[in-house]
């Protein structure tokens, strides 16, 4: 059976070795340009020029500028940031700090709201964001919480998904709406509040009466 012409034409490109220089230069170029021009001003041509490559080379790796941004953000924030130091409180602070640092600079405020809007209209981009950025970070922090349960630091019946949302929500909320800054102590403040709770002993006693 004769294969379609387009299958024959694509075969050589399938064996082309990946240029690691481009893989390193492109995310750096994307972040630099986002700081300079913002999300709306970012173009594939500008990224290609800054990374000293070609637009076709970019297209072979990333379908659109939105995919470029997701890739760059995942690299900047890290996908497995939560360590295992033997201290639940310390592990969670370290993990949330990497998220805060990634979005603390102006690029976060200029990029995340627009990117989130694009995710809603592009299921493929949304899936890539979740796979490259959201789920790996969430899984890493979930592992830290489960270690906390094993150490006796966190209640065995704790809702892990709810804790994960609470730990990360403050950073995302401040980046999206810009009503308050992402401070140097935000990660520690959030972790302490989540683990200790904000209610007084008086409230706890009244709730259980």
Summarize the structure.
This protein has 209 residues and is an all-alpha fold. It has eleven helices and no strands.
CATH superfamily: Tetracycline Repressor, domain 2
Span between N and C termini? 78 Å
Helix/strand-derived category reads mainly alpha
As for the number of domains, it is 1
The helix content, as a percent range, equals over 70%
Could you say which overall geometry the principal axes of the C-alpha atoms support?
A: elongated
User: What characterizes the major β-sheet?
Assistant: none
User: What is the succession of H and E elements?
Assistant: HHHHHHHHHHH
Could you describe the 3D structure shown?
This protein is mainly alpha-helical and 209 residues long. The protein has a single domain, classed as Tetracycline Repressor, domain 2 (Orthogonal Bundle), CATH 1.10.357. The chain is 75% helix and 0% strand. The N terminus is likely disordered.
Give me some keywords for this one.
mainly alpha; 11 helices; 209 residues; elongated; single chain; disordered N terminus; 75% helix
């Amino acid at each position: 059976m004769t294969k379609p012409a387009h299958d024959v034409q694509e075969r050589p490109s399938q064996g082309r070795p990946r240029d690691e220089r481009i893989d390193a230069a492109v995310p750096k170029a994307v972040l630099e340009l986002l700081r300079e021009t913002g999300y709306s001003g970012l173009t594939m041509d500008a990224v290609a020029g800054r990374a000293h490559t070609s637009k076709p080379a970019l297209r072979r790796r990333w379908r659109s500028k939105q995919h470029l941004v997701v890739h760059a953000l995942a690299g900047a924030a890290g996908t497995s940031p939560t360590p295992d130091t033997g201290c639940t409180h310390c592990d969670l602070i370290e993990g949330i700090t990497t998220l805060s640092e990634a979005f603390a600079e102006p690029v976060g405020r200029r990029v995340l709201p627009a990117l989130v809007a694009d995710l809603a209209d592009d299921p493929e981009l949304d899936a890539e964001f979740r796979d490259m950025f959201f789920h790996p970070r969430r899984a890493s922090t979930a592992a830290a919480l489960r270690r906390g349960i094993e150490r006796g630091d966190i209640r065995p019946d704790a809702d892990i998904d709810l804790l994960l949302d609470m730990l990360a929500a403050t950073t995302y909320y401040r980046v999206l709406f810009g009503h308050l800054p992402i401070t140097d102590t935000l990660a520690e403040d959030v972790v302490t509040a989540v683990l200790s709770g904000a209610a007084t002993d008086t409230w706890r006693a009244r709730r259980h009466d």
